[in-house]
């Protein structure tokens, strides 16, 4: 599969069971969760980390210790109406939409010494090219090395699942 960003509405059969986990302070990951993610990705998976989130990250990030990130929005429809869930970015100076591989680093003059300076998370260095709205029971699944930011509205509840291919 070559898809980099996948959106699935009505992901869970019974989303309220997972939403209730926020009240009980536990992230509910079931066989249904794993089975559906494996079916979409097309491979067996390993869950590296799963958490309930209500805060986003102010700035642009990429995750390098995993293959995929799943965000499943569980805020009730009225709470999430019109709110963004995940934004995706390209770097203004080099156009990269994901963390560079070795070839891209050489091509763009990126070294281990200057990588933190080049990929500063401050939004002034980034161009947003996509914004996917938060919607009750919506899965946004994307390659974890893509430059992104999460919902920063504290009313938005979502499960964040960090995934490695098994």
Question: How would you describe what is shown here?
Answer:
- With 166 residues, this protein is α+β, with helices and mostly antiparallel strands.
- It has a single domain, classed as Jelly Rolls (Sandwich), CATH 2.60.120.
- The chain is built from five helices and eight strands.
- The strands form two sheets. A five-stranded antiparallel beta sheet has the order 1-6-3-8-2. A three-stranded antiparallel beta sheet has the order 5-4-7, with no helix packed on it.
- The model has no long low-confidence stretch (mean pLDDT 91).
**Could you please say which CATH topology applies here?**
Jelly Rolls
Task: Name the CATH class.
Answer: Mainly Beta
- Secondary-structure element string: EHHEEHEHHEEEE
End-to-end CA span: 15 Å
What's the total helix number? Answer: 5
């Amino acid at each position: 599969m070559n898809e980099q960003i996948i959106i699935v509405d009505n992901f869970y059969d019974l989303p309220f069971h997972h939403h209730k986990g926020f009240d009980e302070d536990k992230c509910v990951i079931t066989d249904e969760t794993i089975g559906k993610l494996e079916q979409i990705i097309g491979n067996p998976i390993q869950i590296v980390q799963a958490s309930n989130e209500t805060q986003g990250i102010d700035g642009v990030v990429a995750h390098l210790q995993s293959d995929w990130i799943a965000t499943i929005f569980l805020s009730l429809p009225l709470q999430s109406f019109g709110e963004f869930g995940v934004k995706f970015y390209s770097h203004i100076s080099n156009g990269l939409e994901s963390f560079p591989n070795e070839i891209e680093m050489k091509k763009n003059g990126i070294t281990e010494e200057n990588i933190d300076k080049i990929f500063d998370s401050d939004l002034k260095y980034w161009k947003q090219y996509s914004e996917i709205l938060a919607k009750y029971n919506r899965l946004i699944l994307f390659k974890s090395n893509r430059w992104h930011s999460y919902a920063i509205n504290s009313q938005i509840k979502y499960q964040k699942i960090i995934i490695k291919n098994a």
